[in-house]
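Summary for the steering committee. One of the milestones for this cycle was to obtain a three-dimensional model of the protein with NDP bound, which we needed before selecting residues for the alanine scan. The sequence and ligand used are listed below.
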Amino acid sequence: MAESMPTAVKDVCDVDMLVNSFMERMITQSPGEREFHQAVREVAKSVMPIVRENPAYRDGKVLERLVVPDRVLIFRVTWVDDHGEIQVNRGYRVRMNGAIGPYKGGLRFHPSVNLGVLKFLAFEQVLKNSLTTLPLGGAKGGSDFDPKGRSEGEVMRFCQSFMSELFRHIGPDVDVPAGDIGVGEREIGYLFGQYRRLSNCFHGAITGKSLNWGGSHLRLEATGYGAVYFAQEMLATKDESVEGKIAAVSGAGNVAQYTAEKLITLGAKVITLSDSGGTIVDREGIDLEKLTWVIELKNKRRGRISEYAQHFQGVEYMAGKRPWSIPCDLAFPSATQNEINEDDARQLVQNGCCCVCEGSNMPTTEAAVDVFLNARVLYGPGKAANAGGVAVSGLEMNQNTGCMRRSRQEVDDQLRGIMRSIHENCVKYGRQDDSFVDYSRGANVAGFIKVADAMLQQGAI
Ligand code: NDP
């Protein structure tokens, strides 16, 4: 049967078989880690043809090594709440791969955090960091602690307890955490304070710090701005721009806020934001004044996005819903993983969405990615599109080492340059015969080659 197949079809079948048997082994070795399996499968599909053709990668078992973390740290985080009751959480740091530089990747505080989620995030981080062109390995950490509804004192005591264990494992040349879901400026402050107290050192072991004690200009804005810069690059390949486009943004946290801000500044109309309770739809457009209100709501008052619909006139609130049923030209998922399923993707395509740019990590399910690729939508995967955050973190590390600070303009120029070069790399490795660019494949292959080559050069470790 296989012998009568056209060569191209047989080739695809061979790659599918290799991916399936690789995944079977991997799932047996790390059972139950659903998100991790999903992330690995997506990458394995892209890089398997290269591994198959390259004896050094194949015999060097690079892919097999890449899916086993260099080291995993799991620890107990005990703290006392405002009622004097002892609380116990789990703390994690997954160091996935350090072949190209010190480990770098955020900390997530959310009740959904478990080992599988952090392994997926750390795995994505390895390839993302490789794409940035900076010498950074990949890691991720966090806890199942939920800062929502906790007092300032509780959040501080939790952060101090978390860092009381983590501090002995991190450092500017070893492992440099940053923020992620549930870890913003406030948490970074408490974490760094405890790190400084215990280590007796003031150096750049954490990024995302405040500007007046070692932080970099634009770190807060970098992931959102970078995602929009990446979308601009993708749109430019079609002689399009974001100006005048209608944009749907999900989330209302750090990434969503600065994605929305940059889009508004560039002349797009942002009509949605969301949180885990639901979505607001403001068809008039969220302007900079309304966005400032959202930032105050989320970062200071710690309120719910539903309050936006009560505060501003003519706004619809869709409880328990995501934004993707609302017609838009551009979609910026900026909340969490698997927030766009196959039905959402079909709906977006049907409504004429031409560009999906991922601020969040792995927001699109495997089936939904296929919908976008088949419809020839410009699809920017998170590991490329949201790399602006870690890129500016890399610049922050560099500034800390040199005891200096670059201006806002300098950092912005560098961020734009890095997003442009990530885009070029994705095009280089993702362009297909019909000249459509599969950015997902491009990002996976470009990110993989750099790490794989470093691993081979460093021997069988
Ligand atoms: P924040 O905690 O600042 O904001 C997260 C937002 O997503 C909140 O609005 C939150 O709503 C919503 N959200 C979280 N979980 C869910 C869920 N299960 N269902 C629906 N909504 C949810 O995090 P960030 O903005 O920093 O991160 C957002 C995404 O971007 C994540 O995927 C993160 O990994 C990714 N990312 C972040 C970077 C950064 O620099 N911060 C860098 C690169 C990627 P609620 O408040 O109700 O929980």
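Key point for the committee: The first strand starts at residue 71 and ends at 80.
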